[in-house]
Design goal:
By secondary structure, the chain is mostly beta strands. It contains no helices and 11 strands.
Length: about 160
């Protein structure tokens, strides 16, 4: 996964249907506050912990906003990653600099002793996670500018 502009869409999984006869590509339908959004989930879509996606799960699907999309309704994007969320949890997929500030300045990370930091393949990550694309799971942020959070979990895409 190269660095790009990843846009999240968060909602509840309404349906998962095969797109091809081989079932390798699936269509994921999310019900969001703004309506229905669909995603193509392929063999290249990253799903943390290889969780099996099911109806009723709350999830954030991330797509590359720099790629063209077909002009259809409901919108259909190619999912780069799908993260299943716990109650009151948020996920962000962004490049963070050496100071753990998001590339767009929207979030500052302050990992704590309970923050789990692993590589995308689940191995313990003992270096600084900065200067990498990170999938960050968190619940609460400060009201400062930029908002700061102590994430629950950080997945590092080296």
């Amino acid at each position: 996964m190269a660095y790009s502009t990843y846009t999240p869409v968060t909602g509840v999984i309404q349906n998962i249907t095969p797109l091809t006869p081989s079932c390798c590509d699936q269509l994921l339908t999310l019900a969001t506050n703004g309506g229905i959004v669909t995603f193509t989930v392929s063999k290249d879509t990253y799903i943390p912990n290889n969780l099996q996606l099911r109806r009723g799960m709350r999830a954030s699907a991330f797509y590359d906003a720099d790629l063209p999309v077909p002009l259809i309704f409901p919108p259909r994007y190619q999912a780069e990653a799908v993260a299943v969320l716990a109650r009151n949890e948020t996920a962000v997929l962004q490049y963070f600099d050496e100071n753990l500030l998001a590339a767009d300045g929207s979030l500052k990370l302050t990992p704590g002793p309970t923050t789990t930091i692993t590589s995308a393949n689940g191995q313990r990550f003992t270096c600084s996670p900065g200067k990498n694309l990170l999938l960050v799971f968190y619940s609460i942020t400060t009201r400062s500018l930029p908002p700061q959070t102590t994430p629950h979990r950080i997945l590092v895409f080296c």
